[in-house]
C-alpha cells in the first residue's frame, strides 16, 4: 500500500516538474509557434480591403518638399508657435482653436450629408448654432452641456471621395501644407469653397488668417513632430505611411 | 492514504485554477502600470534624479510591452531572414530605440497630461484593444493599445495614435530598408541611431 503511494507521489512530482520546466525546455519551439500565429494573423489582415501603401511616382519632388517643410518647421513655425505659446494663456489659445473649428462646420456638415451621416450632420448643425450664439462666435464650446453635442468625427470631402470608392491616387507633398494624396488634394480644394476664410479679402489677409490658425493649432502639438521624426529610421517613409494610415482610419469612422 | 490523495488532488486543482481560471480584464491590467508610471512622473522625489526615474519607468514598460512580439510583427515575413543570433540582436536594439524615443518623450514633456480609459474591445480570448485618450491642455489625443494574452498576462503588442499603428509604420520602413540592405545592415543602423541618441542624452544632461 505504502509503495503505491510513493509511486503516485513520485509520478505526480515528475509531472509537476515537467509542467514547470516545460516552457523553459521548449522555448524555441514556442517562439516558432508565436511567430506562426502572428503571420497567420497578418495574412488575414492583408486580405482586408485596406492597403497602406501608396504609389509615389513624384518621389523626388515629394522628398524635396518634405525637406523644405522640415526646415520651415524648425526655422519658422516652431519658434513662432513656441513664442506664441509662452505669451498666450491656454484658455485664449483654446478659444481660438474652438473659433476655427466652428468656422470649419460647413465643410464637416456638407461632408456628413454627402456620406449619409445625417445624425452627425445634425450634431454639427446643433453645435454650430449653440457655439456661434451662446459660445460667442465659436470661441466657447458648450458641448459639455449636453452629451449629444459631443463633436462627431471630422469629415471632409477627401474622405467622402474615399467612401465613394475613389482611391488615394498618387502621394503628394505640398509646400507648407504637407502630406496629401491626389484624392485628398482635390478634396481639400473643394472644401476651401466652403470655408469663410477663402472669401476674406484681400488674399494676404486670408493667408494670414490661415497661418494664424496653423500656428495656434501647432501650439498644442509642439514636440510631436520631433518625436515621430526622431523615432524613424526613414523619416520620409515614416510620414508617408503615417499619413495614409491616418486617412484610412478617418474614412473608417 | 486518502488524506494524501485529497491533498494531491487539491494541489492539482489549485494549479489548474492558477493557470486557467484567472480572468483578467485587459483594461484593468493596463491601468495599473500606467497609473504607476504617471505617479513616478509626478513624484517630486525624482525631479532631480532623472536617471533613476528613467530606470523606474523602464521597469514598468518592460513588464507591459511584449517587445519580442513587437519585433516579430514589425519584421513580419522578413523575420525569417534573420539568424537566431540576429533575431535576438534585432529585438534588443529595436527595444532600445523604442525605449529611447518614448521614455524621453514622456519624461521630457510630461505636463500633467491625463490618461482617460474610454473602453476595451475584446477581439478574442487572447486579443483585445484598450482605448484611451490623452488629455493635454485642452486637446484629446486618442491612443489605443493592442494587447494579447500570453502566459496569463495581457501584454501590449502595438500602439495606435490617432489611427496610426506604430508596428505598421515600422513594418513599412523596415520592409523598404530590407529590400535594399541585409539584416546585419539594418541592425547596424539601429545601433548607430541608439548610440547617437545616447550621446545626445549625455550632452543634454551636462
From TrEMBL, chain A:
Q: Which InterPro entries does the UniProt entry name for this protein?
A: MlaA (IPR007428)
Instruction: Provide GO CC annotations from the record.
Output: membrane
Entry keyword Lipoprotein: yes
Q: Which family does it belong to?
A: Belongs to the MlaA family.
| PANTHER family reported in the protein's UniProt record | INTERMEMBRANE PHOSPHOLIPID TRANSPORT SYSTEM LIPOPROTEIN MLAA (PTHR30035:SF3), LIPOPROTEIN VACJ-RELATED (PTHR30035)
**Family matches, as Pfam families:** MlaA
List the keywords (alphabetical).
Answer: Lipoprotein, Signal
Protein name as annotated: Intermembrane phospholipid transport system lipoprotein
Among its keywords, does the record have Lipoprotein? yes
Report the gene name. mlaA
User: What biological process terms from GO does the record include?
Assistant: intermembrane phospholipid transfer
From TrEMBL, chain B:
Q: Which residues form the signal peptide?
A: 1-21
Q: Which domain of life is it from?
A: Bacteria
> InterPro entries attached here?
MlaC/ttg2D, Tgt2/MlaC_sf
Any Pfam family the entry gives? MlaC
Q: Which UniProt keywords apply?
A: Signal
Q: Does the keyword Signal apply?
A: yes
**Under what name is this protein listed?**
Intermembrane phospholipid transport system binding protein
